[in-house]
Structure of dTTP/UTP pyrophosphatase:
Amino acid sequence: MEAQVFLASGSPRRKELLTQLGYQFDVLSVDVEEIHQEHETALMYVERLSKDKAQAGVKAIEKTKSKYTPVLGSDTIVVIDGVILEKPKDFEDAKRMLLALSGRQHQVMTAVTIATPEKIRTKTVITQVWFKTLSEQEIEQYWESGEPCDKAGSYGIQGSGGRFVSRIDGSYHAVMGLPLMETDQLLHQFL
C-alpha cells in the first residue's frame, strides 16, 4: 500500500506511535538544526522545530515526487522554570537535568506539524509531569542503561525512566513524542 503520509523523523517512538494510529507511512530523513534562538519562548521554539522538520520534508519530496503527500514533523522538549532541557551532551549534563527535575513538576511540550506545499497546520500539546525525588545512585544507574542519551530532559517515560514519574496531567503519548488524538485530528484535515 502506498504511503498516506511521510514521517520526517527517525525517532523509533514516533514510528511506533504513528503505526498505532494505523496510517501507512514512509520515513524521511531531514536535517534540521535544533538551536534555540534568544527571542524564542519554549513554545515558539518547539513549534518552529516541528514546522522546520515538516517543511524540510516537503522540500525533499517535492524534488522526487509529483503526488501530493503530507509530511508530519514533530518535536518534543522538556521545560522547567522556563528553561529548556534538550538531549544531554554527556553524563554531567544528564545528571544536572535529572537533579533539576527531581521531586518537582515540569512541562513536556510536543508540537506536531502536517505540511504540504499548499498548507501547514501545527498543534502543540503541553503535559505536566511530576518526578519523585531521585538519588544520585538512581541517576547514575539510569545513565548507565543508555536510555537517557537521546531523550529531551534525559529521560524516556516509556522506558525505565517511567519509574521516576509520580504522575502526569495531559497526554502520555505526547510525552513519548507524538500525541495520538491531536495527530489523528491534524491528519484528517489533510487526508
User: Anything to note?
Assistant: The first strand starts at residue 5 and ends at 7. The chain has one domain: 5-188.
